[in-house]
Amino acid sequence: MQKRKSLRLPAYDYSQNGVYFITICTEGKKHIFGRVVGGGVLDAPHVCLSDRGNIAEQTLLEMNDFYGDISIDKYVVMPNHVHFIITVAAHGGSSRTPTPTNAKLPAFISTWKRFTNKRAGVSLWQRSYYDHVIRNDAEYLRAWQYIDDNPAHWAEDEYYSD
């Protein structure tokens, strides 16, 4: 049996304080969340979300309100993937049970994927996700700008397909 390569940084504690740039793709990178529309100066490119895209967005926002120690700083739902900047704080939240090391971020993402699947009535997501640990203000601003610009650069996006 072939062993899957982990996309996580080895020996990095994902439960510690930190800021992360996350990308999660749909299963098979199918365009199920909507389409990019607009393109003029007054009509800037943006994503017109489908019902499933709205489910992904609304569930993300609801979870952002629920978790006291995790916040979504910026996000974009694209036709076949979602990007967001997520901040994990030291403690807080609604549970008194300590979260094991390396569990906060993966638990949040797993729960979000599970809730969106349940609401949509089908499996929406690829098995894993991509993360980048944001280490300084310049990286944070670069990730923020990337999210802002993503709809305008959809045709050049690595996840784009016709």
Describe the 3D structure.
With 162 residues, the chain is α+β, with helices and mostly antiparallel strands. It is built from three helices and six strands, in the order E-E-E-H-E-E-H-E-H. The chain has helices at 51-66, 104-120, 137-149, and strands spanning 18-25, 34-37, 46-49, 70-77, 81-88, 130-134. The strands form two sheets. The protein has a four-stranded antiparallel β-sheet with strand order 4-5-1-6, with helices on both faces. Strands 2-3 form a two-stranded antiparallel sheet. Helix 1 packs antiparallel against helix 2 (104-120). The protein is globular and about 45 Å long.
The number of distinct β-strands equals 6
What is the CATH topology classification name of one domain? Alpha-Beta Plaits
Mean pLDDT: 86
CATH class placement of one domain: Alpha Beta
Helical coverage, percent range: 25-40%
Broad shape: globular
CATH architecture of one domain: 2-Layer Sandwich
Major sheet strand order? 4-5-1-6
Distance between the termini: 33 Å
- Report the total helices: 3
> Largest sheet, if any?
4 strands, antiparallel
What percent of residues are in strands? 15-25%
